[in-house]
Amino acid sequence: MFHIFQYQPLRLITQNSLSNVYLKLMLSRRVAFAQIWKTWFSSHSLLGKKNIILMGPPGAGKTTTGRIVGQKLDCPVIDIDDDVLETTWNMSVSEKLQEVGYKEFLEEEGKALLKFSASGSVISLSGSNPMHAAGMQHMKENGIVVYLDVPTTVIMSRLKSMEVDRIVGLSPGVSLKDILQFRKQFYKRWFDIRVLCGGDVAAEVVAEKVLDAVKRYQDSELETFISTRSSRSGRNMEEDSNKYFSDVVTQGLALDGGLFVPERGLPKFTAEEWQGLIEATYTERAQVILERCIHPADIPASKLAEIIETAYGENFSCSKIAPVRHLVGNQFLLELFHGPTASFKDFALQLVPHLFAYCIPRTCNYLILVATSGDTGSAVLDGFSRLPDTDKQRIALINFFPEDGVSPIQKSQMIGCQKENAWSVGVKSDFDFCQTAIKQIFTNSDFTGFLMVEYGTALAAANSINWARLLPQIVYHASAYLDLVHQGIISFGSPVDICIPTGNFGNVLAAFYAKMMGIPIRKCICASNENNVLTDFIRTGAYDLRGRKLISTFSPAVDILKSSNLERYLHLISNEDGQLVTQLFNQLENQGHFQLREDLLGRLQQDLVAGWCSEEDCLAAIHSVYSTTGYILDTHTAIAKVVTDRLQDRTCPIIISSTAHYSKFAPAILRALRIAEINQNPLSQLHLLSSYSALPPIHWGLLETLKKTGNGDHQICAADTGVLMCHIETLIQNHFM
Question: What is the CATH T-level fold of the domain 51-219, as seen in this structure?
Answer without folding.
Answer: Rossmann fold (3.40.50)
